[in-house]
């Protein structure tokens, strides 16, 4: 949805209203987790779990504008400077662990500019994933999410691991999840879908579609708390596979293509006496 900044002034008996539009006007990120650290990056909202040394969720809007091929991948993985050292995961935690530094918000979703791309390599956006998961079915799902965002005009993506007691760890107590999820909501809030993948997942992605209610039960995260109860019930209980094409193809827009739906609109309204 779009938020409007409104200014008006008089011009020869008319009111000139200037509307500027912003694609991030309605925040569809999940409810904050009180014991977590809330981090805000240029494009990402992150709920960081100190105990497990990774995010419970990373949430961001993916519109056609963000799907322009502007920034090259730079593998500058590093600790998040907004976290205290004792809370933050470090590069040394992943060294020789046998696990990939798996993106939650993938680098390929963050090509709009160099700053956004760089921030996607902060370890607060990273979770230890088996290579055969990160580079295979998870990568296929990430590509499909981009295709859906392009087709549907924009979606809110929330993604993360299922964090729970008893997980194995690497390094200095960085938990190794065995399941990951994605919750997707179209920007018009008319459609949503949830996917829950174990790290040994394989084959068709469609078989990992679940209700968002089920992901909430697993993670204890309230994904759509800003929506009305009736909207939540409709979107969270119904996986609605039929609304999401699992054969969708994707390609980036050129960097210099202007994809803003609205820039500035001058709307003249007469004054009635």
Task: Outline the secondary-structure elements.
Layout: E1 3-11, E2 14-22, E3 37-40, E4 45-49, E5 54-63, E6 68-69, H1 91-94, E7 100-103, H2 114-119, E8 126-129, H3 131-152, E9 154-161, E10 169-170, E11 174-175, E12 179-186, E13 192-198, E14 209-210, H4 212-219, H5 229-237, E15 253-254, E16 264-270
Parallel strand pairs: 6-15
Antiparallel strand pairs: 1-2, 2-16, 3-4, 4-5, 5-9, 7-8, 9-12, 10-11, 12-13, 13-14
Word description of this protein:
Helix content is 18%, strand content 31%. The chain is an alpha+beta fold. The strands form five sheets. The chain has a seven-stranded antiparallel β-sheet. The longest helix has 22 residues, at 131-152. The chain is globular, with a radius of gyration of 20 Å.
Helix-residue proportion: 10-25%
How do the helices and strands follow one another from N- to C-terminus?
EEEEEEHEHEHEEEEEEHHEE
Number of domains: 1
What would the CATH topology be? Extracellular Endonuclease, Chain A
CATH architecture: 3-Layer(aba) Sandwich
Number of helices: 5
Give the low-pLDDT segments.
1-25, 261-273
Radius of gyration: 20 Å
Largest sheet: 7 strands, antiparallel
Please name the fourth-level CATH homologous superfamily. Answer: Extracellular Endonuclease, subunit A
Structural class based on helices, strands and sheet pairing: alpha+beta
Shape: globular
For the secondary structure, the number of strands is: 16
Share in β-strands: 25-35%
Mean pLDDT: 88
Task: Please identify the top-level CATH class.
Answer: Alpha Beta
**Can you list the strand order of the major beta sheet?**
3-4-5-9-12-13-14
- N→C terminal distance: 34 Å
